[in-house]
Amino acid sequence: MRRIIVQKFGGTSVADTEKIKNVAKTVIKEKNNGNNVVVVVSAMGHTTDYLVKMARDLSKSPSSREMDMLLSTGEGVSIALLAMAIQAQGYEAVSFNAMQVGIFTENIHSKARIIKIQTEKLKQNLNEGKIVVVAGFQGVTEDGEITTLGRGGSDTSAVALAAALNAERCDIYTDVEGVYTTDPRVVPKASKLKEISYEEMLELAQAGAGVLHPRSVEIAKLNHVPLRVRSSFKTDDTGTLILGVEKMEIDRPVTGVAADLSQARIVVCDVPDVPGQAAKLFSKLAQENISVDMIIQSYARKVSNTNDIAFTIDSADLEKAKETLNQLKDNIHCGEIQINSDIAKVSIVGAGMIDRPGIASMMFETLANLGINIKMISTSEIKISCLVDKSDADKAVKALHEEFKLASDIIADVKGDLPNV
Amino acid sequence: MRRIIVQKFGGTSVADTEKIKNVAKTVIKEKNNGNNVVVVVSAMGHTTDYLVKMARDLSKSPSSREMDMLLSTGEGVSIALLAMAIQAQGYEAVSFNAMQVGIFTENIHSKARIIKIQTEKLKQNLNEGKIVVVAGFQGVTEDGEITTLGRGGSDTSAVALAAALNAERCDIYTDVEGVYTTDPRVVPKASKLKEISYEEMLELAQAGAGVLHPRSVEIAKLNHVPLRVRSSFKTDDTGTLILGVEKMEIDRPVTGVAADLSQARIVVCDVPDVPGQAAKLFSKLAQENISVDMIIQSYARKVSNTNDIAFTIDSADLEKAKETLNQLKDNIHCGEIQINSDIAKVSIVGAGMIDRPGIASMMFETLANLGINIKMISTSEIKISCLVDKSDADKAVKALHEEFKLASDIIADVKGDLPNV
User: Fold this and answer.
1) Co-location of A153 and A290 in the same domain
2) Do the Cβ atoms of B67 and A80 come within 8 Å?
3) Domain stop point among A142, A175, A208
4) Domain C-terminal end among A129, A158, A175
5) The pLDDT value given to residue A1
6) What is the mean pLDDT of residues B65-69?
7) Residue B32, Cβ density class (10 Å: 0-12 exposed, 13-18 middle, ≥19 buried)
8) Is the model's pTM score more than 0.90?
């Protein structure tokens, strides 16, 4: 059997019929390379916004089941139109929604996880020489209920399909040209990476880089699917390949710098230093589906025998978190609750830092030299994050990008040239 | 189990969110009458036109499979929105597309016929007290291919669901208030009928009255489903009930007058009078999917031993018919082919004419008195149609409407009062 390439095009890439024609050309080019092609598409441009607006006109809190029914129609439109556009170029194409394919998910609306994908129908159509167009973002439960996969859902669909079909590669076409060392809007000299490891990509995504949703990277990593992020519009460029670290030659300690401006810090002061207080706090937040990122608990003060517990959450969850904490206040007998949204999490990510001690201190020094105060620190094997004032974020990113020699005019020359600090 | 009422709302009735809110009220009113309610909806207002336009942008002749994939998304939107609107009023509602219900059709795209409908899921949800909203116009094949039912498809879905669910009644909500004795735009005094038989409705629909597609009436008749045509906007009115003639007291010879302006007449002149010529002609037209309505073959001329064969078709098929006939010309050795689109078929319909001879002659006399030339005549048990010049159509309809005493200001008084001519 021929190699299978899965291609994914987001909403911007299929925003109107002219753009759909361009996507058809890109798809056909891959087919003409001698590959079997499965294309995953999102809903056209602003379709989802339009549908959500109508739903809000009708109901303050529309049921998530009916929202999934509604939103899933968006990809229904784009898959059929893309199949027509491909056919108009003289190639055979067929579109399927998630229910037709059998993209099974758990029975949770608006953010379901994929459980299994049936591949018979897809393989049969590929074997007949057809280009197969599949609706992204949606799934179906065993009971025939329509679900959606939540943020980054179409990326997840594409990667999961690539895994199920044992595809050669999954190409994520998007409106940027690849993965950059940092946000080019902040640092114009940011360079596009040719390769990055799944782990680095995951950390970058979690650190605020918006190119790919972490879930899709996680699935790619688990299933060893090489992922490529590339431009829908500049198709001659190969973009950035995301693959297993074991396949990479690591020639740099730091691969990227990211800033996440959407975090908020909460400090719960004077929590009595008795066992189970932190558990009470964080299990309650988890119940409310509030993800906590960085956590710091101070040593207990000798005099009062209390702790301060500081943590960060997504600003979008702030109101819900305030409510939850106010309900908890009497239960855990804590003091004041301080909230600060004017913060940013600045991170450096690199698989190469594993074998290179001293990267953290380089980061702290760089920030110190700029007079930037670090409020919290968290680290993983391949990432160091510092919480700073929001107003310092851009300055910090620029300085770190320079410190670790990531600029486009020098990155080509530094291969293996960085000091093993 | 409670009685089931099936309600159907067309595209105009769900054209925007305000109208969807109104539909929700009408649905809830029926639910509050103590009935189980299944609602069938079409795509919102101009959705279908918009989708078709995009398809045409991409392809001159988009594949009918992909067109069905595309168009079926239209009802996907309206069912979810209506379910939300009902929920917002505090009632439980759930929407299903044809694939989820199991509305199985033959494997033909763009005009599939319904084969069977699974009722388990519907009944289960009704028993749980929910209002069930179902996508009209669409179906699914045993292989999971999405199909559409063609013109009048949502009416057909509604009636077929009513039949499968053994519903008490199927209410077709539309932008007119019911079935009229004739088109009120032509005859302002046309009266709304309280009742009409399936057979009369079928003949009227085929004679050009646009309220209901004949297919839905046919299914209602076969399954003894009482059908009601009523206004989406004036919900206090009961509209027109369509039911079996055996349940009606027939108090009038003629129930309605209709004009069909979309016909074209073709005369194939000098066809050699040998067996099989008509068969060749009409089987070829049938192959091309061209429906023939009236047919007249003249007696063979003694001298030339040839016939003239005249027939009418839908004007929309005219170009295709011309092509087909030109290909046939040499094969059947006919003479000139005359085409006339400036014609109209004027019909009177009434189950009451079965026992009342002389109705036909009343019609012919009425037309003759106006100096209207009759070009062709065709009859059924309960219908008489005359082909006239298009410019005479309105005049003919007005005169026949008066002759058979159908005007709104007198119809109430004439019960059983018409002469048994």
Assistant:
1) no
2) yes
3) A175
4) A175
5) 64
6) 97
7) exposed
8) no
